[in-house]
Design a protein that fits this description.
Rossmann fold, four-stranded antiparallel sheet, 10 strands, binds adenosine-5'-triphosphate, binds magnesium ion
Length: 272
């Protein structure tokens, strides 16, 4: 399901189309030296097919939130549901993209993408077909047999994206995926990611430190406060579905959303 961001439904997703539900969650880490409350009072509902960006000061629990959705971490309190089911342990049906591409140096781009299929025991003909589709979709055609050291940072990140999408996950979790890229490559990756999201219909939760990136990409932006992290505000992005990168920056909806996020983050940082 895809809804224009400006519709009221985009701000209050309909229950039956909910993909991710986080209900009154808290996460506490107990270490030898101290107890850290990473998250408290976090509730968030993400509709199927929605693109949600998460921003907040360093250490506010953004990565922790993604780990909860993937089942890598259990909440100390509250519940997390994915496609209507409680997340009981690590989920195999999600896709995860990290800040660094984490590719195997001794495998070609295609073989790195197919690693996902090998780990899941996917039929190899289906996996190869899907890999070719993704290679074309991300503009990697011609570089299938190149090794990671022969690829640029942006290309490596595209390989990681293909690997995460190979099994058609209903949810793609992205933790600062473009943080290590130069500004121009990052822009191009933003444009590509938005196009891929529209083509695949995957629900995306993306953590970023870039406010323009969050607003350009997302339907809604979750703004988190400093530790112990909680959701400060959910900002609906009032921009058309079809977003030209350059033109979007001069849209009133873009200025409104980025301005509001900056105000909230400024307050969060000064209270840190
Ligand atoms: N396994 C762990 N054990 C103990 N404390 C942890 C653990 N994982 C995270 N924390 C703590 O929880 C808090 C939130 O961490 P998290 O990595 O989610 O922050 P973040 O918002 O992703 O930060 P950044 O923007 O720097 O990546 C931090 O104070 C961190 O030290
Ligand atoms: Mg993090």
């Amino acid at each position: 399901m895809r809804m224009p961001a400006s519709s009221p439904a985009a701000q209050a997703p309909v229950q039956m189309d909910t993909c991710v539900e986080i209900e009154d969650v808290a996460v506490r880490f107990r270490t030898k030296r101290k107890d850290v409350t990473a998250l408290h009072d976090v509730s968030l509902s993400v509709a199927a097919g929605e693109f949600v960006a998460i921003v907040g000061p360093s250490g506010c629990g953004k990565s922790t939130l993604l780990k909860l959705v993937s089942g890598l971490l259990k909440p100390s309190k509250g519940r997390v549901r994915l496609l209507g089911e409680d997340v009981g342990g690590p989920r195999r049906d999600i896709g995860y993209v990290f800040q660094r591409a984490a590719l195997l140096e001794w495998r070609s781009a295609r073989k790195n993408i197919l690693l996902q299929a090998e780990m899941r025991g996917m039929p190899s003909a289906t996996a190869r077909e899907r890999a070719d589709e993704l290679i074309a979709m991300t503009g990697l055609t011609g570089f299938e047999d190149a090794y990671p050291h022969e690829l640029s940072g942006g290309m490596q990140q595209r390989v990681a994206l293909c690997r995460a999408l190979l099994h058609r996950p209903p949810v793609l979790l992205m933790d600062e995926p473009f943080g290590a890229l130069d500004a121009l490559t990052r822009e191009n990756m933003n444009i590509e990611l938005r196009r891929i999201w529209r083509e695949t219909g995957t629900t995306i939760l993306l953590v970023t430190h870039s406010i323009p990136e969050a607003v350009y990409l997302a339907d809604r932006v979750v703004v988190m406060s400093a530790r112990p992290g909680t959701i400060d505000e959910l900002i609906p992005v009032d921009l058309p579905l079809e977003r030209d990168y350059g033109r979007t920056m001069s849209e009133p909806g873009f200025a409104r959303a980025t301005g509001r996020i900056r105000d909230l983050l400024g307050a969060a940082t000064s209270a840190d």
